[in-house]
Request: fold
Amino acid sequence: MNKTIYDRIGETVWRGTLPNGLPICVVPKEHHAKSYAFFATRYGGMDTRFCLDGKWLDTPAGIAHYLEHKMFDTKEGNALQELAKNGAEPNAFTSNAITAYYFDSTEHFEENLRILLSFVSVPYFTKESVAKEQGIIGQEIRMIEDNPEWQVYTRMMKALYKTSTARTSVAGTVESISHITAETLYDCHKAFYTPSNMALCVVGNVEPQRIMDIAYEVLPQGKPEPAVPRDYGTEDAGVAAARTEREMEVAMPMFLGGFKCTPPQEGEASLRTQLVGDLACDLLLGPSSPLYRRLYEQQLINDSFGGAFEMMPGTAYLYAGGDSRDPEAVAQAVLEESSRLVREGLDQAYYQRLRRASFGTTLRALNSFENIALSLTEGQFRGFDAYRFPEVFDTVTEDDVLAFLRENLTEEHCALSVIRPGQEEGAQA
Reply:
């Protein structure tokens, strides 16, 4: 394994790659009782169309999340129960681009790591167990579909994107998951749960080479598999719909204004884009921004207001939203404030203060084992070293931030999603 010391953030990372193509990184934390393991695949809700063994497959929306649920099944029983019995706290999640399985424990760490690596790499599905899961996940979907926050977000994504699978719900729909079979799950596992499409990150009081040895012993051996071709859909710069509205049981209108941004590049340019987008978001929408204070004084927003910049495969977007008695006025104010900043430039004292705050926020996130593992894994999948963020951050200029606002925060790139008080039956596109 190779050792890298990051002086600016006070961290050391050990990295190595198994002969089967699995990248492994270990962040030693000698004086901590807890250790944390994070085993992830570059496969998420967006990956519904891909080429396996020379044949293009169209799989149902929600299948990556469905597969995550079923991966805990083993011939012996259930891996979740086995890990919990060993004192571990296991869990998993599926996002648009990643499925991850993880646990933390203060004892029996090596044994738990073996269990984690084993059940994720060796699937076990039956026709009966897959059918049974449809009812469980179907109930989850019905619950989230009744959630106004989920509705306002998913409707915004469908308004932003015309064909990109970014508009696909990670959970799918009750109808889409009804088409999932054990055979399809095995196909998806074969395509994406290969060591060369995965990453293992361990943080804690562990010996790096020991982690490599355990992974080598447990995981299937062989040569790295070639990357599976994927089709996320093609997108132009315009939005699918400028506006979408629905009535639900809410006390006040709820909204999200989304801005379709230039798709990110791979590699370190991806990290730089994330830092620029985050900084632009803070400058425009943060609690100390002139826009926030003005809208708050006008009682057009409350403490629920906020925004973020997000990147997914082939797509990126910035959004702002919360509760408001006049969502249209807030969305217009965001557009106008962005134009003003581009036209007049940034207040230097405010800009420098935000830069320091943004850097500090990113640095503090490294106090969390979970954030360390997720950041390093996302970097591995997107082709950059997440611990190089100080050096990349140094290259971000005021002009970069203003260029980001000028290119992306325009009326042509904007889609407004609103949930208004009323009855469910009042839904409209």
About this structure: Confidence is low (pLDDT under 50) at residues 425-429.
